[in-house]
Amino acid sequence: MTYVGRNGAVVGLAVVTSAGADAPSEEAVRALDNWAALLRTRRLVSAGVAPLCAGAVRAREEVDAVLSGTAGPVAVVGGLPVDALVAARWRARGVVSVAVAEQVPPGAVAVIGPAGATPEVRAGLAGRGVTVVDATCGKVADLHAQIRAFVAGGEAVLVAGRSTDAVTPGLTAQAAPGQVKVLENLEHAMAVPVPDPARVAVVIAPGRPVEDAEVITETVRARFGHVLPQNPASYCHAADDRAHTLQRLAHSCDTVLIAGLLDEPEAQEALRVVEEAGAPARLIHSPEDIRPEWLRHTAAIGVTATSTTDPALLTRILHALSGAGPTAVTTQHTTTGGRVASVPRLAFGRRPRRGTRRARRTNRRIRPA
Ligand code: SF4
């Protein structure tokens, strides 16, 4: 507990101990010493990146619209990240999250989440006669269509992504088993077998940072030479924006606090990005988790949260930190915008047959793919 004067200076610090104690305990004195040593002015930098990507926001709105129009059960198919407040509200309304069609309650409205669904799940939903609301993100649906076109054209499709991501089953299920393969790392990209090295297409799984994934796609290109590319207009930059924002926090702050849960992949990813950018990162799920030793010798502290964190928690953390001295609270974020200049569009279609004049012309025009 601190007392901040009118000029913003911290003028007092108190530790509350149990009632009736004659003298402060050793523990209380130690706590006072620890926290008093931290009192100073600081910058608190909050990550201003939106907690949910555009696809998740749209899907969330679809679920809310369904809830306002039906009293029956609602099932979200394939997962949808929402913060703790929304999750509690949906739970109270009986919204369930399911992975397969068989788990959808009879008579429910099934909302397909932003990661999309496999053709098998869609067929299962149709077979159960439930009402389906398709909230698949436009970028995901676009990539599904591109993968189907590549496979129809005889290409093996390689996806730079992770097999555990919610979007992956929908991507690999767009063709017969084995025609779409997921590349998780460089070793995989170097070793993945394909039926015909001259017939390869490579795409980036939505939700993966494009810049990270490009290391994998470039490895594929270096290995096979010319490959068919994804239309870059369908890249999703939501993960890049989140990663860049965390890197900026890491560069401009002495430590970064991440509000999230230990078993949350998004929290683990945030820890990795901040630490690789060179700043200590701490995962917390309440202000009480903040340790005084983390704040010692810090002039600037970054604070961020995962998409499922209660938004009020971020405010509580900033409030708690402001007790350790006068603070300037700012936000930082990076956003990838749309096109800023008119550039000629390339046609992304079937590759002309090798050796023809059109093939030589096309390869000159779009290499490196
Ligand atoms: S493609 Fe991008 S915007 Fe769409 S759901 Fe995935 S991360 Fe969100």
Notes on the protein architecture:
- The chain folds into 3 domains: 39-50 and 239-332, 4-hydroxy-3-methylbut-2-enyl diphosphate reductase, catalytic domain (Cobalt-precorrin-4 Transmethylase, domain 1, 3-Layer(aba) Sandwich); 54-136, 3-Layer(aba) Sandwich (Rossmann fold), CATH 3.40.50.11270; 139-235 and 341-366, Cobalt-precorrin-4 Transmethylase, domain 1.
- The protein is 38% helix and 18% strand.
- It has 13 helices and 15 strands.
- The chain has helices at residues 26-36, 54-69, 84-92, 119-128, 138-152, 168-172, 186-191, 210-224, 238-252, 265-276, 292-295, 311-322, 357-366, and strands spanning 2-4, 10-13, 42-47, 74-77, 96-98, 109-112, 131-134, 156-160, 180-183, 200-204, 228-229, 255-259, 281-284, 300-305, 327-332.
- The protein has a 5-stranded parallel beta sheet, sandwiched between helices. Strands 5-4-6-7 form a 4-stranded parallel beta sheet, with helices on one face.
- α9 (238-252) packs across α10 (265-276).
- The longest helix has 16 residues, at 54-69.
- The radius of gyration is 26 Å and the shape is globular.
- 32% of the residues are buried.
- Residues 361-369 have low confidence and may be disordered.
- Iron/sulfur cluster (SF4) binds next to α2 and α5.
- The site of iron/sulfur cluster has 12 residues, from α2 and α5.
